Amino acid sequence: MGFRPSKEELMDILAEIDEDGSGEIEFGVILSALCKVLVEDPDIETMKRELKDAFRIYDKNGEGFITMDTLRGLISELLSPLTPEELDGIIAELDEDGSGTMDFDEFCEMMMSAPET
After folding, report:
1. What is the mean pLDDT of the chain?
2. Comparing C-alpha atoms, which of 55, 64, 62, 67 is closest to residue 91?
């Protein structure tokens, strides 16, 4: 990637993608930008690095996992409206090992898998 924007350039980028003017970038926007990067540069090492950066946003304590509560909030924001039962079903599918957390490998699998049609 190698892109080192200035503060002004970052503010311009934020203004372009900050849909609601909150000064924050929502998870869906991050995913959209990440997907764009992945489509433009399919190199596996670049993909893993970008996914790791995205994962770190939600692994706030650096523990190596995202809690299901955090993931539940993200999914409900992205896929609203969902019933509690639908959300529970999605969480159960994502938490393959039943740990109550999503580690980086599970996150990569989720992000790199083709959507079901």
Report:
1. 76
2. 67
Which pLDDT band holds residue 75 (cuts at 50, 70, 90)?
confident
Nearest to 95 by CA among 83, 107, 85, 86: 107
User: Strands, DSSP E only, in 5-111?
Assistant: 65-67, 101-103
Tokens of 108: 């990569």
Sign of the dihedral defined by the CA atoms of residues 80, 69, 83, 109, in that order: positive
Residue 66 three-state SS: strand
C-alpha span between 19 and 4 (Å, rounded): 23
Distance, CA of 115 to chain centre:
15
Give the Cα separation of 82 and 95 in Å (integer). Answer: 18
Whole-structure pTM value: 0.54
Lowest mean pLDDT among 19-23, 38-42, 81-85, 107-111: 38-42
Closest among 89, 88, 87, 67 to 79, alpha carbons compared: 87
